[in-house]
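Hi! If you just cloned this repository, the fastest way to understand the data is to look at a raw example. We've pasted two of them here, unedited. The first protein comes first, obviously.
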Amino acid sequence: MPARISIFTPVYNDADWLPGAIESVLAQTHDDWEMVIGDNLSTDDVAAVVAHYDDPRIRYHRWQTHVRIDENFNRTAALARHEWVQLLCADDRLHPGCLARIAKAIDAWAEDAERLSMVLTACRRVDEQGRSADHIWYGSKRPLPVSPGVHDSASWFKVLLGDGNPPWNVGSVAVARWVLEESGGFFRPEVGLSADVELSFRASAYGPVVYIDEPLLDFMVRSDADNSIRLLQNRSGDDERTPVEVAMLAGLNVHRHRRDVSSRERRAVHAAIARTHLQRAAQHRVLDAGKGRAGAWRDIRAAWGWSPATAISPYNLAYSLAAVLAPRGLLERVQRRLAGRHVREAQTSR
């Protein structure tokens, strides 16, 4: 039997964006899917939008209580009936062949003794007009190189610790429902902002992962999105942890419970966490709500605490000095140049 995929879409006041998401699912060449829409007590008429589409595979559920965004993700995912579960936010769009490619990878694995845990694809980042938003997404981080095909738990763990922004987004990730049931749901609210990163770590601890190196999702990059707002709050607040640090430590804990994690892997986690602090150090200087030089120094000290070898590398040492000493205007110009270079790298690799 071909793979059956449940698309779940948690919404709150997304009536303007939702039709595009629904239509991108209806346009799929793979037709063994369902779409579950969980309305987080919206004040706009989401029900009327859904009612416009007469397809029994589309189900609408309006909750009677309004909850946090991650909790609405989880309770909507729990409505899924099929063996594979994939998030699609209201402002994102699947390419017509997305589910077919994912189902093909799942079906090819069906006879193997070890259960597949996750299949994911690359994606495109776009703005509200459909134009490339790579320059916003990549910023000063290069695209993360990922080999297509099958990765075991240790291999994918290594991928996730690489220095760069991943070419996928959570909307292009299909997770086996048994993994979600055994591991406690789609997102873990206690992880916070980077719960999607933790999901990639956690799911891979349960079995092999297949990566498809083709952009099959358009992911919307919006300044008013919840993650943008929470990133600003993280910079402006007193949380000494970076969001990705929390996700990595949670992911490491799951891997340690399911397999032997080497000391080299633990050091790699510490090095990756150190890099997130160095990145936030520069953000304190150039992004809104940053804490200036004082915030930069705090994160540089944290990076040294996690991995002195990482902090003292020639590139990172120069990066740290620039984050503290360079004029803001110079940092902004360097950031724009790096963003342009990394966009070109991302486009060349496609």
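Ok, and the second one:
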Amino acid sequence: MARKLFGTDGVRGIAGEFVSAEQQSGTPKLWINDPFSATRTVNIRGFGDFESRIDTIFVDLTYYDDVNDYKQTHSTALTKGTTFNDWDFSVISEKDGKLTYSANIRFKDGTVETIPPTVADSDTIMLGDVLLSRDVTVMADLIDFAAVKLVKVSLHYVDEANGLDQADDLVFKKAEPGPKNWAQSYKDKKKLGYQWSAQYFFADGKTAKTPLQDTVEETIVLPERPA
């Protein structure tokens, strides 16, 4: 039968009753040892662009051994300077106990992505945000910069499901005729469509703008002038 071991929960500082698995002994004396039989280490790792995209990843972890009503909690914050954290704690049984975690990823633009309580399937927890990127090339080879002072190209990409909203401008002029690249960030390879338009500023003071266009192309060739 299982034996009950009485000890002290060092974290909460209260008396606790812990149940060990059935054991056998061939000696006439029975020694009851410290119920904490091992130390468990949980590795928390942050990944993604901490330079320009991710500000802080706030992580909360809970370990609960329902057999012994034994609980441990831990909180940490991952940043550019510290992208990892190791949590060591004592356990009564290496086989029992459930580890759960939740997190909030705060981005540099002020938005927050929440990760709800999740049961960990290993002692290494990876948290972060992966952005893919592709270069969209914009060419102004057809433009006569003797007649056009400059062209401003506006590009806009939105993926609401993944919290992406990217808008950038590229400027072309005689001294900088290009081609120029736009680094389009994305998460879903099936959602690459973006919008662009170009505003022309002519040497005679007039301006004109192309219609807003939807495309998935990796190369944009600007027309000589708006239609």
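That's it. A detail worth noticing about the second one: Residues 4-25+34-129 form a domain with the Immunoglobulin-like fold (CATH 2.60.40).
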